[in-house]
Amino acid sequence: MQRIPVGLVGVAGYTGMELCRLLAAHPELELVRVTSRTEAGKTLGQILPHLHETGLAELVVTAPDTQDLAQACKLVFLAVPHGTAMDLAADLLRKNVRVVDLSADFRLRDPETYSQWYNLDHRHVSLLEQAVYGLPELYGKEIAGANLVANPGCYPTSVLLALAPALHHELVNPEDILVDSKSGATGAGRKPSTATLFCEVQDNFRAYSLGRHRHTPEMEQEIGVLSGQQVQLSFTPHLLPIGRGILSTIYARLKTTASSEEVHALYRDYYAQSPVSARWVRIQTPGVWPETRFVRGTMYCDLGLLVDQRTKRLLIVSVIDNLCRGASGQALANANLMLGLAPDMGLPVAPMVP
Amino acid sequence: MQRIPVGLVGVAGYTGMELCRLLAAHPELELVRVTSRTEAGKTLGQILPHLHETGLAELVVTAPDTQDLAQACKLVFLAVPHGTAMDLAADLLRKNVRVVDLSADFRLRDPETYSQWYNLDHRHVSLLEQAVYGLPELYGKEIAGANLVANPGCYPTSVLLALAPALHHELVNPEDILVDSKSGATGAGRKPSTATLFCEVQDNFRAYSLGRHRHTPEMEQEIGVLSGQQVQLSFTPHLLPIGRGILSTIYARLKTTASSEEVHALYRDYYAQSPVSARWVRIQTPGVWPETRFVRGTMYCDLGLLVDQRTKRLLIVSVIDNLCRGASGQALANANLMLGLAPDMGLPVAPMVP
Amino acid sequence: MQRIPVGLVGVAGYTGMELCRLLAAHPELELVRVTSRTEAGKTLGQILPHLHETGLAELVVTAPDTQDLAQACKLVFLAVPHGTAMDLAADLLRKNVRVVDLSADFRLRDPETYSQWYNLDHRHVSLLEQAVYGLPELYGKEIAGANLVANPGCYPTSVLLALAPALHHELVNPEDILVDSKSGATGAGRKPSTATLFCEVQDNFRAYSLGRHRHTPEMEQEIGVLSGQQVQLSFTPHLLPIGRGILSTIYARLKTTASSEEVHALYRDYYAQSPVSARWVRIQTPGVWPETRFVRGTMYCDLGLLVDQRTKRLLIVSVIDNLCRGASGQALANANLMLGLAPDMGLPVAPMVP
Amino acid sequence: MQRIPVGLVGVAGYTGMELCRLLAAHPELELVRVTSRTEAGKTLGQILPHLHETGLAELVVTAPDTQDLAQACKLVFLAVPHGTAMDLAADLLRKNVRVVDLSADFRLRDPETYSQWYNLDHRHVSLLEQAVYGLPELYGKEIAGANLVANPGCYPTSVLLALAPALHHELVNPEDILVDSKSGATGAGRKPSTATLFCEVQDNFRAYSLGRHRHTPEMEQEIGVLSGQQVQLSFTPHLLPIGRGILSTIYARLKTTASSEEVHALYRDYYAQSPVSARWVRIQTPGVWPETRFVRGTMYCDLGLLVDQRTKRLLIVSVIDNLCRGASGQALANANLMLGLAPDMGLPVAPMVP
Q1: Which chain B residues contact residue D290 at CB under 8 A?
Q2: Of A324, B113, C22, C233, which one's alpha carbon is 20 to 30 angstroms from that of D154?
Q3: Which of C180, C205, C219, C236 should be substituted to probe chain A, the one whose Cβ sees the most A Cβ atoms within 10 Å?
């Protein structure tokens, strides 16, 4: 039986590599094009020796060419930097190819916010309306009908899934939310730099981009949608000496007198009614706090909740695998939805622990 | 459709956890019993929170009971220490259940060698003849007909797959082989001890059990079978500050004038004719040296080869995932073979890199 | 010349080991007694092979005996668990030996708070008044005259040094402070447990003790002293896959309109007027954010500051080495002060980077 | 009192950083010049924020200028790549400045071997005779009188100290020695590259430069001197996911019937008679195997020995800190000797464990 042909622009980075891992085992999608400006001409097995002798090994890397991609593929994943992605997306959409964009180019509805935070004017403003924010639990129906999906940022994925039920039920004050996030180093990409060398990251921990990380407006936008009001979010990202994984510790001022049990129940019910059939958001048992390894290699978002009566805050600990749920796995789930497949098709069932 | 019921004795250790990961996604086997003396009464989701809300979460852990296991299961995996496994195996076999034993109890054909290296008399000597050494590429046919499979040790798996073609073709002198192996810390098990605390292992590296590691006679036995002569092997294991992975660097005195290209070809051909259809042993392209991550989470054994004319030695670098190929994945492959299923059923296709 | 004899109760844990490292190079203090219930009879070189053939190697470990300690030592460091330390301290003080207690037993002024958070009644309430909280920059003069110093907790050290200038100058609202801290695994001690095994900590990250960590009342007490009002602090600790190091990210609601430059200046001035001559608190250049490695092996506390106009919060990033500044190094600095020596005598000058 | 002025060419790499750490605490040497082509004009505190507010912080980085270095310094450390170092050394020697060269440029006595392994013709052959190989235990007297010291490679340091007593006493056959070494990633330098990114090194292990590492001829040269015969060495380096540390596992064919106890005694005696008064080589107690952390931050070389009667081999495990003993610490010890100071002046006493 014929599988659906898909393409991947930008195979040499970590999100590209993760998509290869997932597509290698997908029963209905076939990766027929992989592109990379720097690696064109080599086979995938040559540039990624861990794929040697797998089904993807002989696929030849090409230079990105939208004409060729459009002829060969029904859907294309863009795993290239913001600024580069928007033109490719526009071009592919014009040629009737569906696009899942892993960059930030179509996440912000407001082009002015985009230019302010990314120091770049948006060149395809008309597409912003058409783009669907690819968080399946919140926008599952819209994704199913979309031609262009803006795959969410890794930090926003971990934060929005954690806050959605609380905001929906008005358990917390949206104006007093504070997010302290910690990410594994795959989030920093595969481009060589001194700051991401092994000897600079291992046995070390640091904060970065304080007060100015680009995922801030993305979270503010979606918290705004969920709460119906504009908010200013305190968000601080940190760099963990691990490969995969994001843990966000979220502090929100309580507006409710609901007990911890009631809050747990509201969270469980919220996700039981999610438009996607997959049950990726797991509310952990009270007293069990999510760890990044609990979700390694999967689409799970594990949440731990505490109603802290002492400080009148709701504490939420949220973990995802930044490469899988925070990028390529979510992109594949979105592709599944766009192509009418089961949302969790080709996605790992059990996390890799240890 | 009914899946084949299987059981797992010893779920709380790392090999038990890895079997759960793999069985959670297996299309034809159903895990119906998991046992642990210390955790009996809890659900699997309670003792392993990363399995919360997966298909295995509600399975209740029981105390090991061969009567119950025999009634419920067609095949049982033993993931308990040597010494404990042999009695359970004997009991289960008597009750007509097939057994894959992950311990060392049935690996050595000679009970005297067993008692000498394990300081323990073997209580089921008669079963030693019946047991098949579970290395699929070497004993695939015998495994398919076995009731009792002795799953190989992690170090021997990495070493024997690396040496088999060279010994078969008499490329090297079996009396002058030296193995320097390095293993991730999952190989040390999950029992609490000062020596395996995070702060003792991280940012550190050490050798251990010099001149007396228990996998030595196992390798000597199988090298003896492959070469037709008795050998003494120099084997030194080391503890790596990583979770999964074994890399063995093997030095063997050359007996051949074959070129590097010819040796690569002989290796490729040897495994192309393996009795199992799965192609898990990958001869990497000359110049590409295997890294432990290339095989993470999979059954692959990657080999790098160098005919070193300067020192007249064949150098082999061999990597496996010690938990998957070196233990639970290989156990599952053996179970597949014993039950007439495709050998690679339920085993991951692509390694998790990064 | 005779050096001053000191003793160490509890040499086998990480704080004991760190004190040995520092005392091995101290020009004026001589370690003459080391005790450990479990290791008594062995030499220090035997139980800590990294000290083999150093000046401390031949020191014989004894069982703790206050009579013997009092005869041999002028000052004793207690590196034993809370609950055990208080009786030893009382006994040693009675015998006219000065004590630096690294446990929590004398940190809280209020015995009721102690029993509430530590589930233990304090057996030496009268000593609480006498004990000085051993944070040299805040209590340098009192420490110099003390017989009993309560060495601060590691988290409180990182947090109080970060907040003292802001509270002193009333830059922030003491009732809206939130502390998100991350600690290396040495903070969890050296006692074997599954949760601190290498394979459970590496490539992983988690929060713990949410809403109920025992360092919370210690910080609330000292913030109370600094601000003149009782406060409730939101404090969440996390476990980092590194050995040494704490990074605290602190969010405090601004009460001032001071610019970022002014705040930096106030911080620098505050510590320039510290009662101890050592200059351990370093205000990093704006834009340079402290990393845990910047202070590895030393007494430094590095601070990064941001006046975040968007969210009206003061953001402070504070790093210390939890074993040196957060425990044994600070204990040694306190001993130096108590014995009339220069506060930084025997303490490393430059951090170990990389 | 005036300290002796010294300079450092190449401050931005890891060996330069390590020299800064050590010189910051040296009582008799004063670092008065640090150079870096890329960082000239900034202060040391700016490019290395962990030195912020230390005594070295205000030192301004200059572009390398031998005229200026010669005027300001009595001795200069060269921490630049091979090929670059030789011209600087020649120039400085001409200007009567002593030189400790941390590169490989003056380690090999034979210029042809140099050009063969380094693909570069030596431009200062006449200096090769004058250069002393800076391994203090073997060449302590020559170093004391030298103007040019070739600081040994990190791997050779760990291997030669391990083999010297065995070769001196003819315990082993110099023609059948095999060295399997593992190094921390600081050995790979600080230049950005994909292969040394955190996400490529962590949770991974690999061999590299099989059969062709440039430290091979250096070891062969010195083994030749020690044994009086030309040898071919099997040497395989590997990359460890740790910062500092080398562990070499050495296998040598026994020529002696000496017992393990006798071999231990011969080793201890050999180093007791070393020309340097410092006792850096520690023969660990039989049964205690050296770990890389045992020597972290120090000049120690710890050795573990086993006479393996089964395989007729002497097994030696040797560990050093590749940055301290294997590079900058050894360079400082050599400088101490050249300047008539105690060899261990300014070098740490106790390793940093944990």
Answers
A1: 206
A2: C22
A3: C205
Whether C185 contacts C196, CB under 8 Å: yes
Chain A residues within an 8 Å CB radius of D203: 243
Quick check: B329 contacting A, CB < 8 Å? Answer: no
| Angle, alpha carbons A270-A272-A276 (nearest 5°) | 105
**What is the spatial distance between Cα C262 and Cα C281, in angstroms, rounded to a whole number?**
18
Give the number of C-alpha atoms closer than 13 A to the C-alpha of residue B265, restricted to the C-beta side.
Answer: 5
Give, in degrees to the nearest 5, the angle at Cα A171 between A277 and A325.
35
Contact D213, B251 (CB under 8 A): no
DSSP at B345: T
Residue A233 contacts residue A179 (beta carbons within 8 Å): yes
For tokens 């708070």, the residue is: C113
Q: Two tokens at D188?
A: 């790979």
CATH superfamily of B155-323: Dihydrodipicolinate Reductase; domain 2 (3.30.360.10)
State chain A's mean pLDDT as an integer: 97
Percent of chain A at pLDDT above 70?
100
Chain B: closest CA distance from residue A319 (Å)? 11
Pinpoint the residues of chain A covered by CATH 3.30.360.10: 155-321
How distant is the alpha carbon of residue D165 from its chain centre?
19
From the number of C-beta atoms within 10 Å of its C-beta (0-12, 13-18, 19+), residue C277 rates as exposed
Which residue matches tokens 């696009």?
Answer: A99
Instruction: State how far the Cα of A350 lies from the Cα of B14, in Å rounded to an integer.
Output: 15
Q: For residues D80, D83, D87 and D88, what is the CA-based torsion angle, rounded to 10 degrees?
A: 0
Q: Tell me if C352 and D353 make a contact (CB, 8 A cut-off).
A: no
SS3 for B257? coil
Q: For D279-302, what is the mean pLDDT?
A: 97
Does B54 touch chain C if contact means CB atoms closer than 8 Å?
no
Q: CA torsion C183→C184→C188→C190, rounded to 10°?
A: -160
pLDDT, average across residues B121-136: 98
pLDDT in tens, C67-107: 999 999 999 999 999 999 999 999 999 999 999 999 999 99
Helix (H) / strand (E) element for C320: namely strand C313-320
Determine the Cα–Cα distance for residues A165 and A268; give it in Å rounded to an integer.
Answer: 9
**Helix spans in chain A (H):** 14-23, 44-47, 66-72, 85-94, 111-118, 125-130, 136-144, 154-168, 198-201, 215-227, 260-272, 329-338
Q: What type of residue is B38? A: T
Enumerate the H helices of chain C as residue ranges: 14-23, 44-47, 66-72, 85-94, 111-118, 125-130, 136-144, 154-168, 198-201, 215-227, 260-272, 329-338
Residues of chain B with CATH 3.30.360.10: 155-323
**CATH 1.10.287.180, domain D155-322, yes or no:** no
Instruction: Determine the straight-line distance between the first and last CA of chain B, rounded to whole angstroms.
Output: 36
Closest residue to A203, CB basis, from D190, D194, D243: D243
Q: Measured between CB atoms, does C80 come within 8 Å of chain A? A: no
State ipTM.
0.98
CATH class of A155-321: alpha beta
Fold of C4-130: Rossmann fold (3.40.50)
Q: How far is residue D188's CA from residue D326's CA, in Å, rounded to a whole number?
A: 13
Residue keyed to tokens 């500051």: C305
User: How many residues comprise chain D?
Assistant: 354
Contacts 24+ apart (CB under 8 A), D119-122: D120/D82, D120/D83, D122/D86
Q: What's the confidence (pLDDT) of residue B1?
A: 65
For residue B9, list its beta bridge partners.
B35, B78
Range(s) of chain B covered by CATH 3.40.50.720: 4-130
8-state DSSP, B57: T
The pLDDT, as a whole number, for residue D277 is: 84
